[in-house]
Design goal:
Strand 9 and strand 10 form a beta hairpin. This protein has a 6-stranded mixed beta sheet. A 5-stranded parallel beta sheet has the order 2-3-4-1-5, sandwiched between helices. The chain has helices at about 5-15, 30-45, 60, 70-80, 105-110, 125, 130-135, 150-155, 160-170, 180-195, 200-205, 210-230, 235-250, 260, 270-280, 315, 320-330, 335-350, 390-400, and strands at about 20-25, 45-50, 90-95, 115-120, 140-145, 285-290, 300-310, 355-360, 365-375, 375-380, 410, 415-420, 420-425. Mean pLDDT is about 85; it is low at about 435-449. By secondary structure, the protein is of the alpha/beta class. The longest helix has 22 residues, at about 210-230. It folds into 2 domains: about 5-145, P-loop containing nucleotide triphosphate hydrolases (Rossmann fold, 3-Layer(aba) Sandwich); about 150-200 and about 280-430, no CATH class.
């Protein structure tokens, strides 16, 4: 069983003084149900799972006037177990097929008998408004992502001392031991080829066969196309075409997502709902452009200029040719590497709690990612090469008085080097660019999405 970072969030939620129901969202196939199931079985005396899509003939689902007592009886009967007050986790899965359960959440939480976790497919698409309408003191919303690189290393049983050493190097801007750096870059390049979906990762750990891994990723990609076709109603073919086009533009390392490459006659006003649907469903990651560099960055977001990435880097690399895959394994600069680094960085930072933006310097067609860390804007650039040089993009931002930035990062395949305000950071150390915002306290929180 893969160890996922969401376990610590689940533990914090369980131990929180202010009891809430937890709603876990996230892209299909990222491991939501498995993680919740494993957590429930290990941390509660009784774990009851009820999948609404698998119990369509249940009397409960046919009774529109059911009560919480009816729910408890049905859960006990289906689970063939006792419901123990204070010691039971009830996991309600695929809740999008039975939306009537949501209005009951305040009553169930107030009852204070059992803990509840709800999850399902396309919750941010099918039930976004219903979830947002619930009183926030009764719910927490937690988004789950595919495995990030730190989780990938943990799956390889990388010693915790290595993480502590790397974090010390990151904090104090120290060059990393060359042997350790080479091992980490080797792991990262394999992560690019495997990705973070649990099934391909487990296949890789069990077989070390990248061909089998690609088969697993292609299956997931086909499942996604099927789900897009099933859920996107009247725009099926265009939606699948748009989804496929994301991968092509990532590989080409386009400066922004170009609608003309998806459909030469496309206009943003007509394509906006398709793009939002893919992003809400988790199939795509959106990084909007900002026109001004002041906080908060979201206030300067451009509506129709953006980059799109795949939810998981493995779904991009599954179709790379053998030469490109070998270049990754050998850590050789290639035409694809910068776009792959961008996609990996985007998913890493989003999983670490950031809202990510990009900025086009002086309209020269040059991208710099922007994040807010401790109320400061930090520019990030991606280098496809493994050697440092004078980086004009960062120098424009960091030199002079126009922007007043104190530091910036150039992420690449080489070792950590500090040069003035620029830190040349190994791409794998993006895992230490974390949002320190606490998700759970003793007080009710706003939605954590």
């Amino acid at each position: 069983m893969l160890k996922r970072k969401i376990y610590s969030d689940l533990s914090n939620w369980k131990n929180c003084a202010q009891k809430t129901a937890l709603i876990v969202t996230g892209v299909s196939q990222c491991g939501k149900s498995s993680a919740i199931r494993d957590f429930g079985m290990k941390n509660y005396s009784t774990f009851v799972e009820f999948n609404f899509s698998e119990h369509q003939n249940s009397k409960l689902l046919k009774d529109r006037d059911f009560s919480k007592q009816d729910l408890y009886i049905e859960l006990s009967r289906q689970g063939k177990t006792y419901l123990l007050p204070g010691r039971t986790l009830i996991f309600l899965d695929e809740v999008q097929t039975f939306k009537q359960i949501l209005p009951m959440i305040p009553e169930l939480v107030s009852d204070n008998k059992y803990d509840f976790i709800l999850s399902g497919s396309f919750l941010n698409v099918e039930m976004k408004e219903e979830i947002e309408s619930l009183p926030q003191k009764y719910i927490q919303v937690l988004e789950m992502y595919p495995l990030n690189f730190e989780e990938f290393l943990t799956a390889h049983n990388v010693n915790s001392d290595i993480f502590e050493y790397l974090e010390d190097c990151f904090i104090n801007k120290k060059t990393i031991n060359e042997g350790i750096h080479n091992v980490l870059m080797n792991h990262f390049n394999k992560y690019l080829l495997v990705g973070g979906m649990p099934a391909p990762v487990e296949e890789y750990l069990n077989t070390l066969d990248l061909n089998r891994v690609d088969d697993k990723k292609k299956h997931i990609d086909e499942v996604y196309r099927t789900e897009i076709t099933r859920y996107s109603k009247n725009t099926k073919q265009n939606m699948v075409k748009l989804y496929n086009n994301i991968q092509k533009q990532v590989k080409k390392n386009n400066i922004r997502f170009k609608l003309s490459e998806f459909d030469k006659n496309a206009r943003f006003e007509n394509a906006e709902h398709k793009i939002n649907w893919l992003v809400d469903a988790g199939f795509a990651l959106s990084v909007p452009n900002v026109t001004e560099l002041n906080t908060p960055l979201g206030n300067n977001e451009s509506k129709n200029l953006f980059k799109l990435y795949k939810s998981d880097i493995g779904l991009v690399t599954k179709d790379l040719d053998d030469e490109s895959k070998n270049d990754l394994l050998e850590n050789i600069p290639s035409k694809n590497k910068k776009g792959l680094y961008e996609n990996a960085l985007a998913s890493e930072l989003l999983s670490n709690g950031y809202k990510l933006f990009y900025y086009n310097i002086n309209n020269k067609g040059k991208i710099v990612f922007m994040v807010e860390i401790d109320n400061k804007i930090i520019p990030l650039v991606i280098k496809g090469k493994n050697t440092i040089n004078k980086h004009s993009l960062l120098n424009i931002l960091l030199d002079g008085d126009k922007y007043n930035f104190s530091e910036g990062y150039a992420l690449y395949g080489g070792n950590l080097i500090q040069s003035g305000k620029i830190t040349y950071l190994p791409i794998y150390m993006s895992m230490f660019l974390k949002n320190n915002k606490t998700k759970y306290t003793s007080e009710p929180l706003d939605l954590v999405i």
